[in-house]
Amino acid sequence: MMRLSSRAWSRAESCCQFMPVVINTFLVLAITAEVMYLVVVEAPREPGEQHGEWSAVWKATHIASQLFMLGNIMWNARLFLKRSPSIRGVFLEGAGFGQGWKYCYSCETHIPPRCSHCSDCKACVLRRDHHCVFFGQCVGFQNYRYFLSCLLYMSAGLLYAVVLNSEVFMLVLQEGLTLHSTMLLLMPWIMLLIGQVTPRAFIFAFIADTCVVGCLCVSAFLLFHVTLMLRGQTTREWYSSRRPYSLGWRRNVCECLGQRWYLAWLCPLIPSPLPGDGIHFQVTAPLAETPSTAAPGPPTN
Ligand SMILES: [Zn+2]
Ligand SMILES: [Zn+2]
């Protein structure tokens, strides 16, 4: 009986691991389908443009750009999950333990600098940044490029959805930017409950709001990670004012996006080998805080 319940529990646990990926995939596909509907059915809005040549070019351009963003999001997410940054399968014993190496009691092995244990992944992760709850996997040395590119295209896709939704929303209302339309955008649920809006306008307002919130959150997260990349830090190292692994912005970007960093963000299929191995890092300042760089203590009389 105990064996059966533990087997059921481990199966439920492994199913739950995939839940964030399933939910995220559903959200990305749902937003893309909604924007595709706007482009194909709702736009162009002017009756005279309905069957014009410009209309067909306009629609084709929008559909192509949507597919480009969707393809980038899905493929980057796929490679992010595939390129696990954990130490499983990495031969560390011959690396030669030096400064910054630690011992992980959970994995029972020595681990290199910038590597740390993740209790969710149940493994130590090379150049660990953080555990991403939306993907259910750690962000680290091998998959940081795909994580950043995914954020970039999610942010661009949501901004695109915000602009298109706002335009169609204004057209559905047919009243421009008034107090009524502003209130509807700010609190669509209340406007629906007091009967001040049609269900169709409510749906557009609700989706536009969701995209605005999503766009702000993802863009803020992207900005934070671009800053970290330029500073040569991980999220765990952000709290320290010292940057011993920073090699200058160009080499810091190269360390994250690979040798073809100027092209790597355009498509995940562009080969861009990482310069390091995730085990050894060039250091430009002492790893430990020395007494001369330590913060001065409180003055004594
Ligand atoms: Zn460990
Ligand atoms: Zn993890």
Protein topology:
Layout: H1 2-42, H2 53-82, E1 102-104, E2 109-111, E3 116-118, E4 123-125, E5 130-132, E6 137-139, H3 144-173, H4 179-186, H5 188-193, H6 199-231, H7 249-257, H8 261-264
Helix pairs in contact: 1-2, 1-3, 2-3, 3-6
The structure holds zinc ion (2 copies).
The site of one zinc ion has 5 residues, from loops.
Write up this protein.
This protein has a domain at 32-44 and 55-93 and 143-264. It is 53% helix and 6% strand. It has helices spanning 2-42, 53-82, 144-173, 179-186, 188-193, 199-231, 249-257, 261-264; strands at 102-104, 109-111, 116-118, 123-125, 130-132, 137-139. The model is unreliable at 292-301 (pLDDT under 50). By secondary structure, the chain is mainly alpha-helical. The structure holds zinc ion (2 copies). InterPro entries: Palmitoyltrfase_DHHC (IPR001594), PFA4/ZDH16/20/ERF2-like (IPR039859). It is a multi-pass membrane protein. Its EC number is 2.3.1.225.
Give a summary of the structure in a few sentences.
The chain crosses the membrane at residues 21-40, 60-81, 146-164, 176-194, 201-224. The chain is 53% helix and 6% strand.
